[in-house]
Design brief:
Blueprint: H1 3-12, H2 27-63, H3 73-98, H4 125-141, H5 144-173, H6 175-183, H7 197-208, H8 211-216, E1 219-223, E2 225-227, E3 230-233, E4 241-253, E5 263-274, E6 283-289, E7 294-303, E8 313-322, E9 325-333, E10 339-346, E11 361-364, E12 385-392, E13 400-407, H9 409-413, E14 419-426, E15 434-439, H10 445-448, E16 453-459, E17 469-474, E18 487-491, E19 510-511, H11 512-515, E20 525-533, E21 536-543, E22 552-560, E23 563-567, H12 572-575, E24 585-589, E25 597-604, E26 608-615, E27 621-630, E28 633-640, E29 652-660, E30 663-671
Antiparallel strand pairs: 1-7, 2-3, 3-22, 4-5, 5-6, 6-7, 8-9, 9-10, 10-11, 12-13, 13-14, 14-15, 16-17, 17-18, 18-19, 20-21, 21-22, 22-23, 24-25, 25-28, 26-27, 26-29, 29-30
Helix pairs in contact: 1-7, 2-3, 3-4, 3-7, 4-5, 5-6
Amino acid sequence: MDLRILRRWLEHGEGVPYEQRLDARAGRLGGVAMFVLARAITYATLFVGTLLVFLPARVLELAGVRMPARLGSAQALGLALAAAGALLALACIVTFVVVGKGTPAPFDPPRRLVRAGPYRVVRNPMYAGAGLALAGAGVYTGSWGLLAYALGFLVAFHLFVIAYEEPHLRRVFGAEYDAYCARTPRWLPRRRSLPAAPGLVLAALALAAAAPEAAATDILHVTAAPNVSAWLYIDPDGDVSTKEFAFVFNQVPAPDSTGASGYRDLFHLVYQRSGGLHAAETTFGHAWSADLYNWSVDTAAFAVDTTWWNAAHVWSPSIVDWQGKTYMFYTGVDSQDDQRIGYASTSLLDTTDTVWDPERVMVWEAADTRWAVPDPWIYSGQTQFRDAYVIHDPEHTGRLLMFYEAHDSIDFNLGRGGLTVGVARSDSGTVDSWEDLGYFPSTLPSVTRIGQLEGPHVFSVDGTGTGWRLMFSNAGSPPGEHGYTTIRFETLAPGESVADTTPAHWSAPQVLMPYLNYDGSVFGWSGSEELHVNGADYLAGFTAWGPGNAAIAMTRITWNGDDFTIGVPTVTAVDEYRSPARGVRMSLAGCRPGARRVTFLIDSPLALEARLEVFDPQGRRAASLLAGTLARGRTSLTWSLSGGERGGVPSGVYFARLSFAGGVRAVRIPVAR
């Protein structure tokens, strides 16, 4: 039986299809599981040695009972009871290790509530198994003293469970534990649970031989770490760095406690795992969260397989919903280290229930274009063709646009390296056939001065389809890069198509960090991604230049006209579209070089409590213009740039923030004196 299905049956009691996984993926997590198993065996040995061997032996010795000289029916019954109890206790220990990530010892408990295996039948099966083993020994030896000891053992642990264990679990797991108690008895199984009990015990024991693999497929839990205006998602394995990723939001089925259908909102990060034992870059991790702070993680969500074009590596996922399915486009690398772009699909990007279709389809390669160079000698003959970013074509219904980078023929003919952004459009009604739309001359190395351009993506102002940006990374560790200029973007001229590659329609590249007034959150970013959700936009990137292993930094975008700032990614941002304050707008009037004052125009659909503050380039508060009620309609507030002890406000780029219940608005203020 497939161990993955065995594990699912152990936890859920049914053969739920489980996601395809790489067979040889135990790695570090397997080592961690073996360490937990070793601790569990140590504690169990002490428990068994003291309570189930040493003390019962003393009882028999004091009672003068000797081992039976022959095996009769009583001895056979005693052996059966003792064996059943021992197997039950062993199955509980295995379940604690594999499912709970802990041991039975109160000082080293499981990290998650254990409701699997024998714990689906009763809440205290390990104590019951130990008591049954003692009773079996009493029957085998014919010792009433040992039977009394078994009864005392169960009474003592019953009191321990009531006085300590249950209150402790209720404090740790809260409503989750209350719900478990409501449906699972403490000691005596319900009649309908009895037929499944032997199978659950055997399933737990079968998993003991596969503890590393089972642990590698466990769902882990991490919380985001704060970093200036961002939250950092860090892979649970301390040796693993996150790299290129897809950042998406959807709704997944979530039946309520009565079984009625429902849905819940989820953010997803599907990301390339690199470094440590995963330096070969053969797997994607998948993390999901309802609030961007508490994340559940499947560290082996997707992997290379025997399909020729992705047999060596998988890189740079990009996810898009199209015609009722979810498509994950990604870069596949073959055994010759040539790169191509293809996809895998699924009916729903869910949590552990995501099942990718078995077929992996290659759809786009250098030979399909008129400008990308297959097998360039300057890259030792290895095709550079990667980092797809796929969106719905805003101008052609039923089609997709793909942005990516490749080695271009212009630089190839000049005998130099470099990558340039290209774009393709899918044919109508299919994702398997694409049309080459060329490359963006504005992203040639001679224009961007970037030696290794990577991670192109596009986004519009607040999801409106206007004010498009084309953003990309200065990747690797090129000469002259210090972490402050890794992300750059170009802006599309008004009224032009985002698929238009005409150089005159795109602005000169602008560096993100100075644009954001040197916000340290974006220091050293690479492979940035933007996510638009109703009522909120997010900008994220992996911290290629940060200390330690790379993480994924997530920020929230605040739009003010066509400009944006970033801040901490609060969950309320997603729900802001439901807020009556969602229509609040702030803009500038009279802001020009040499001006003596700046006027803020604030339009609000209702009266609300608000605060308007101005911060200098170092993040220090320079002025507080409002701390009270903002009137309904238009409000005009003025910030004077002249006067004061220092003769006026120094030149620089300032930042104004309007904050109120349900949202934040911000604007950049260039001051030139």
